[in-house]
Specification:
323 residues, six-stranded parallel β-sheet, six-stranded antiparallel β-sheet, 10 helices
Length: 323
């Protein structure tokens, strides 16, 4: 996938560009339907599939305290590439871009720079200053300027509307099974392993890899989770505590993960953690021994959950091969 970070640098419009545009926070199943449609239409037309997005998210500029994002920009890029898109255009968003009218955006960027001949958008998409460019506007523009417009309907999974706002709510509630249904994958946190207070291994007997989290980012419900840990191309089971470790009176928000069957020095190394299930909330224990006993119970339950997940994946794999 080619990545363009400034459409003004494009000297020649693409040939037969099939475009979708959006913020794509989380790259959930609804977004994936858009990408699937664009890729299919581009291939049928022997053209190129183009996804247009913004960085930072427009609401991070317009309402900085009003949104917490599901995915970072690197995550979004990874997931869009996985969807088979040929070209990702990331438009820098600032106050000046926010003043761009919908007509100007269509004429100058979508048509002038990208050479768009076909546009696929979600049912609730709107672009331009004041969100003037809704789907009715885009259809009208298409009729006047010679490009087709396809509006994808709302997508539901097991009766739940798939939307970024709904996923944020579910993450905050710790409902990771529902989050997975809407994302099409497990919710993931990631970062570089930081040096902690060394209590997990020395005092409790359960060493942990620590990722410090920001209060300004989307943070799952506080507590203990069953997790899958991705490191150096391999997957491990684990349990993670997300919170402030009230037993020891800590004040930093951190994800402390005990990785099963793992013994390596990974300080400063990148780690990805999938959250499978919220086991319990944070509890302030009376001392180290009660906490250690609870951790042992958490690990036992986590291993059972991970074993069931492994069986589910094997069944799905063999069913897929059978069909």
């Amino acid at each position: 996938m080619d990545i363009v970070t400034d459409p003004n640098q494009l000297q020649t419009p693409y040939t037969r560009a099939h475009v979708t545009i959006g913020n794509f926070d989380g790259v959930h199943l609804g977004h994936q339907k858009l990408f699937e449609q664009v890729v299919t239409r581009a291939r049928q037309d022997k053209g190129v599939s183009v996804a247009v997005t913004f960085d930072p998210h427009p609401l991070k500029v317009l309402h900085p305290q009003g949104i917490r994002l599901i995915s970072t920009t690197p995550q979004k890029i990874e997931l869009i590439e996985r969807a088979g898109i040929d070209i990702l255009v990331i438009i820098p968003f600032d106050r000046q871009m926010a003043m761009t009218t919908a007509v100007d955006f269509v004429d100058r960027i979508l048509l002038g720079r990208l050479g768009m001949r076909d546009l696929v958008v979600g049912y609730d998409y709107a672009m331009g200053k004041g969100r003037q460019g809704d789907t009715d506007f885009l259809r009208q523009q298409g009729e006047e300027k010679g490009f087709s417009v396809m509006v994808m309907p709302a997508h539901y999974e097991q009766g739940m509307l798939v939307s970024s706002s709904r996923i944020r709510e579910l993450v905050a509630q710790g409902k990771m099974g529902d989050v997975r249904r809407l994302l099409g994958r497990w919710y993931q946190i990631r970062g570089d392993v930081q040096s902690g207070r060394q209590r997990g291994g020395k005092q409790l007997g359960f060493p942990t890899a620590n990722l410090y989290l920001s209060e300004e980012d989307l943070c799952p419900k506080r507590g203990v989770y069953v997790t899958q840990v991705l490191y150096d191309g391999k997957q491990y089971g684990g349990v993670s505590n997300i919170g402030y470790n009230p037993t020891f009176g800590d004040t930093s928000l951190v994800a402390e993960t005990h990785i099963f069957d793992f013994n390596a020095d990974i300080y400063g190394r990148p780690l990805k953690i999938n959250l499978l299930r919220h086991l319990r909330g944070e509890v302030a224990f009376s001392g180290i021994e009660p906490l250690a006993r609870q951790i042992r119970r958490d690990i036992e339950v986590a291993r059972q959950v991970l074993a069931r997940e492994q069986r589910r994946k094997l069944i799905a794999y063999h069913q897929g091969r059978a069909t």
